[in-house]
Amino acid sequence: MVIFDVRREIERECKGVNIIMPNILITQYCVRSCPYCFAKKHMSESSPTDMLSWEDLIYLADFLWASGERKFRILGGEPTLHPEFNNMVLYLLERGFDITVFTSGIMADSKLLEAEFLFRDLPPERLNFMCNTNDPQRTHTPLAEQESIKRFFRAFGNKVSLGLNVYKLDFSMDFLVQYINEFGLQRHIRVGIAHPIPGKKNLFLPLDAIDRVIERLFSYAPLLDRFRVKTTLDCGFPLCRISNDQLGWIQRVTGGQTRFGCNPVIDIGPDMSVWPCFPLSDFHKKSIYDFNSMREVIDFYQKYHDVVRIEAGGIFGACDECTFREEHICSGGCIAHCVSRFQNEAPIRMKDVYL
User: Fold this and answer.
1) How far is CA 278 from CA 103, 156, 275, in A?
2) pTM for the complete prediction?
């Protein structure tokens, strides 16, 4: 009965959610080449000099503010490579935005020193960094990069939370807990799964590996509890593969904030193009100038999400008759798997589901 109530709470929150928060790419260039990278295809087709201009940054700030958005999520590539990164962050803070920067933590020493001086007194609520971190024992990471990341952690401490993108079954979380304890980082880890890029080749986890990923993830629950580290699941985890005990634990440590949806995230590139998420960066791409508000952008891409879900309820055959999906508790896994499957079939479906 307790677990049933937890599922009802998830349903209530999912139906009431109205999250906009687009990701703004200020540069397409990155300092790393992660084998699972969702954005690799997108960045490979862009010039390293393709960076957001001040004029377009101001336009986007006005656009989001008029849409009622008070948070600004900065991405890349590696956003700190933008020559105006520090000044742009200062401008957005002055405008009243709370800022999250998604970064590798690899910054030039001079820019890091300047950023530390400018932002050290800000509370994490105004400026925080989501650092996607690779396990140096499992993903090749040069020593110079490892040292650069540690300098970043020392500089920003409790403004930093960690992210882990799982693309191997033997992933570890020990190194993340060590970083948190050593550098005083936020006691939070975001865990995501590497998804396919429809029509392209990238390293991702096949559907038959999801059960083993979930089992290994929850094997770290005692360690995370011991050091009071909360864990949230990124989109793409299907609810049906998570046991009642596992669900109870994840809802407890997140305060009931974990949802099992797959909705348009919305990425906006330096050229002001917009798409629903990185794995679907070629899926009905538009210009932000085609819209009058973020609500219009969300509604536009939600329409296409809904069409795909009509053609394929979810990533598993059982999703078609799943009560979790019917009751909007779970969306049925990552939509990129469905779109990828369509590309390899005869074109017999509604044209809107194809790239």
Assistant:
1) 16, 27, 8
2) 0.90
pLDDT tens per residue across span 179-197:
999 999 999 999 999 988 8
Cα-based torsion angle of the residue sequence 348, 40, 317, 261 in order, rounded to the nearest 10 degrees: -110
Query: Could you report the per-residue pLDDT of 285-334, keeping only the tens digit for each?
Result: 999 999 999 999 999 999 999 999 999 889 998 998 999 888 888 999 99
Measured distance CA(341)–CA(337) in Å, rounded: 6
pLDDT of res. 203? 84
Return all residues near 219 (Cβ < 8 A) that are at least 6 apart: none
Give the whole-angstrom CA distance, residue 334 versus residue 330. Answer: 11
Residues 6+ apart with CB under 8 A from 18: none
Q: What are the residue ranges spanned by the domains of the chain?
A: 2-306
Domain at 2-306, CATH homologous superfamily: Aldolase class I (3.20.20.70)
Q: Are 92 and 64 in contact (CB under 8 A)?
A: no
- CA 1 from chain center: how many Å? 32
Q: Looking at this protein, which amino acid is placed at residue 221?
A: A
What is the H or E stretch that residue 55 is in?
A: helix 54-66
CA-based Rg of the chain, rounded to a whole angstrom?
A: 20
Three-class DSSP labels, 177-193: HHHHHHHCCCCEEEEEE
